Amino acid sequence: QVQLVQSGAEVKKPGASVKVSCKAFGYTFTSNYMHWVRQAPGQGLEWMGIINPSGYSTSYAQKFQGRVTMTRDTSTSTVYMELSSLRSEDTAVYYCARDRGSGRDMDVWGKGTTVIVSS
Amino acid sequence: DIQLTQSPSFLSASVGDRVTITCRASQGIVSYLAWYQQKPGKAPELLIYAASTLESGVPSRFSGSASGTEFTLTISSLQPEDFATYYCQQIHTFPLTFGGGTKIEIK
C-alpha cells in the first residue's frame, strides 16, 4: 500500500531550524517527485517546493528561497524538508505529497507534521 | 505568480443538493488544474486532475470542467461525507498555487 509516513510534531523557538522527514512505502521511491505543502492554522494550502528523489534537483517557492532545503536519502526512501530562521508565522502543519507523475498534482499525502514556533 | 480565485468561499447546502464551485485563474493554464477535498484534521485528497479527470476511487458524483480560465467542480448530489473544504490548484507554472478554498457546510 502506497503511503507516506511523516515525523512527529515539533516545538521550536524563533530563530531555530526544523527538519521534517517523510518516508515512502509501497512504490519505487525514485519514480515520483515529492512536494512539500504547508497549512497555517485555519488557513489554506501553500506550496513550498518540490524535490526529485532520483536526480536530486529541487525547485522552491520564492517565498522560502534561502530558508528551505529539501533533501532525500534513497537508501531509506525518505525525503526531508528543513526550514531555518523560524518565526511565529511558520507555525503550521507541513505535508509531504507525492507527485502523480504525469502532471504536478499530488496523489498521495502524508498525514502532516505540526510545527509550532513559540518562545 | 498565477492567482486562483475560488468562489464561493463558503457554501451551505443540504444532502442531495447539486453544488458547483468555481475557480478562476489569473492567466491561461490550459487544463493544468486539480481539485482536492480536505476534511478537518486530515490531509487533502486528490479528486480531479487535468481539470476533468476523476482520480481512481473518487465517486462519479464529482465532476470537473473547464472553459478558458474558468474551472468548475460539480457535486451532482451532495452526500453527508462530502461536507468538507475544497481547493483548486494550478499545476501549469511554478510556483504551484492553490485557491483560497470553499467550505461546504450542512444547511
Determine the structural class of chain B based on helices, strands and strand pairing. Answer: mainly beta
Spans of chain B of at least 5 consecutive residues whose pLDDT stays below 50 are none
> Biggest β-sheet of chain B, characterized?
7 strands, mixed
Low-confidence blocks of residues of chain A: none
The overall pLDDT of chain B, averaged over residues, is 97
Structural class by SSE content of chain A: mainly beta
Shape of chain B: globular
Describe the 3D structure.
The complex is a heterodimer of chains A (119) and B (107). Chain A has 119 residues and is mainly beta. Chain A contains no helices and eleven strands. Chain A has strands at 3-6, 10-12, 18-25, 34-39, 46-51, 58-60, 68-73, 78-83, 92-99, 106-109, 113-117. In chain A, strands 2, 4, 5, 6, 9, 10 and 11 form a seven-stranded mixed β-sheet that branches. Chain A is globular. Chain A starts with a strand and ends with a strand. In chain A, 39% of the residues are buried. The N and C termini of chain B lie far apart (36 Å). Chain B is globular, with a radius of gyration of 13 Å. Chain B has strands at 4-7, 10-13, 19-25, 33-38, 45-49, 53-54, 62-67, 70-75, 85-90, 97-98, 102-106. The A-B interface holds A 35, 37, 44-47, 50, 59, 61-63, 95, 97, 100, 103-107, 109-112 and B 32, 34, 36, 38, 42-46, 49-50, 55, 87, 89, 91, 94-101.
